[in-house]
Amino acid sequence: MVTFSEFLAYTSFVALHKVLLFPAYKSTDFEVHRNWLAITHSLPLTDWYYADQSQWTLDYPPFFAYMEYLFSVCATVVDQKIVDVFNLEYEAKTVVYFQRMTVILSELVLGFAAFKWSGYLNKMSYNQKLHMLLLFITNCGLLIVDHIHFQYNGFLFGLLLLSMYYIATGNEVIGSLYFAALLNFKHIFIYVAPAFGIYLLRYYCFHNKRFDVVRFIKLGLAVVFVFILSFGPFIHHLPQIFSRLFPFKRGLTHSYWAPNVWALYNFTDKIVSVIGMKFSLISSQVNSNCFSKGLVKVCDHLVLPSIQPIHTFALTFLSMSPCLFNLFSKPCASKLANVNRFFRAVQLCSLCSFMFGWHVHEKAIIMTIIPSTILAFFGSHNDKQLFFVLQYVGHYSLFPLLYEPFGKMLRFIIWLMYSLLSYMIIPTKAVADKDEKSHLHKAKTLLLRLYLLMLPLNELFFSLVYSWTRFSNSHPFLPLMLTSVLCSVGLLACLVCSYKLFFQEGYHCELKTLKNNKQL
Q: What are the beta bridge partners of residue 253?
């Protein structure tokens, strides 16, 4: 295990470099969170989820609101204007630097979680433990989303990692407390709740092949306790809170399409409609597709059937069902193997939700990359390859968040450096076997390399060349659309590979169980 002093040294060193990003691009999320600081500090608690002085209303669960209140108390020492609820669009350096510092301090939770994971299994060498710590605290996506664009995802993923760690080490109740707290900080983590629920029900509540009521009650009380702490003060305002937490009037996709199935669906609808108009199969009088205008609203497809929230929920549930059913019905003889399958289930549930969910944000792909980092160290050789491709494509898909000239240069450098670090730390090349000598394997490898090469070429073309072409004015959304579609293809392939690895491990577990039964 990495020593605590080494953990402090590395996290402090990385934090100092993050301070250099303080003057970087300032997104609208600064005003979002500044307004939340003002709401929680200036208004009574019962008014927090009703305040609408700004368009950036509070739409995170209560634990996050409580954290904003604690930050607001500190903010008054720095600049009293920060917490003025009517001081909209306040952009002084004091507020920007204060908020960036709160991100760095809150991200210590991620560093601590990475430190805990570095001591998970003794089979890892010291260098591997150190490498794992480094991959977590220097995560490319968190640098872009938190320390340049601005959010608090590092803190939240720290809670996710801690919950997974305690469950993996046999402290299921503590792990459940962490995960319940996480849901009450940001409800998007409901994406992976099915994996947590099924694993805990099957491998904690069922003890010695019998359902243990006492364990079930302990687990239930722990979770209920957290939710009471969170929502208790708002007991008479729950409908208002839920209307803020789950708005369904924002449309199928975000202004920049998250690279998922719906990006491919939108793209197909766009292509078919253009062809249909060209050959007079569709009236040219029809309204143009608002999906390709970067708008955040409910849009109808021109040719393909329009998608409703219920359709995305159904597809999300169906896509993760095979994984959840297999996790519950086919346990392995080894606890370590079951824990590994839990990691895979978390990875799959997050990726299924990302690929098929309603109004998914591109930032949500980090929720898949984080558990994939764990599997890169504790899984098979194929998990290492999957992690590299997943982080390479997933982090590239975050590029549209930084669209200013300096941001474009910065995002490209950070992405290349982290990809190089990942490639050096996690060997993706294994000893050659029969399959690797086959023509099919060579063709797959060539296809993968060509695809990976397309991403930097796509970036260089749209950053340096596209603005000089005649299409830049008439088709301003084209770079975002093609970037999204290109990444969607890669992430869809990652979903298929993730499922393949999940069932392969389940098959090997089944063989071992049968072998053990025969020996008995």
A: 360
Residue 431 pLDDT grade (very low, low, confident, very high; cuts 50, 70, 90): very low
Beta-ladder partners of 207: 210
8 A C-beta contact, residue 68 and residue 82: no
- What is the per-residue pLDDT across 349-406, written as a single tens digit (0 to 9) for each? 999 999 999 989 999 999 999 999 999 998 888 999 999 999 999 999 999 999 888 8
Tell me how far apart the alpha carbons of residues 415 and 298 are, in angstroms, rounded to a whole number. Answer: 33
What six digits make up the tokens of 437?
Answer: 């000598």
SS3 (DSSP) at 114: helix
Angle (nearest 5°) at CA 252 between 310 and 281:
100
Nearest to 487 by CA among 454, 449, 446, 460: 454
pTM over 0.85: yes
What are 435's two structure tokens?
């399959």
Q: Report d(CA 324, CA 53) in Å as an integer.
A: 43
Per-residue pLDDT tens for 463-513? Answer: 888 888 888 888 888 899 999 999 999 999 999 999 999 998 877 777 776
What residue has token string 């992690």? Answer: 387
Sign of the alpha-carbon dihedral angle for 261, 386, 118, 15: negative
* Among the listed residues 309, 320, 314, 307, the one whose alpha carbon sits nearest the alpha carbon of residue 262: 307
Residue identified by tokens 């766009």 is 270
Helix or strand run (H / E) with residue 211: strand 210-211
- Complete DSSP assignment for 98-139: HHHHHHHHHTHHHHHHHHHHTTS-TTS-HHHHHHHHHHHHT-
Q: Whole-angstrom Cα distance, residue 459 to residue 408?
A: 9
Amino acid identity of 171? Answer: N
Tokens describing residue 278: 């060209």
CA-closest candidate to residue 393, choices 425, 368, 374: 368
Residue with tokens 């690797």: 436
Query: Could you give the residue ranges of the DSSP H alpha helices within 148-285?
Result: 153-168, 172-183, 193-200, 213-231, 238-245, 261-278
CA–CA gap between residue 492 and residue 498 (Å, rounded):
10
Find all residues with CB under 8 Å of 370, minimum gap 6, and list them: 136, 139, 157, 160, 161
3-state secondary structure 311-346: HHHHHHHHHHHHHHHHHHHCCCCCHHHHHHHHHHHH
Question: Could you identify the residue written with the tokens 């979002």?
Answer: 32
- Whole-angstrom distance, CA of residue 7 vs CA of residue 487: 34
3-state secondary structure 413-465: HHHHHHHHHHHHHCCCCCCCCCHHHCHHHHHHHHHHHHHHHHHHHHHHHHHHH
Asked if residues 407 and 148 have their Cβ atoms less than 8 Å apart, the reply is yes
Cβ proximity of 330 and 103 under 8 Å: no
CA distance 502 to 58: 38
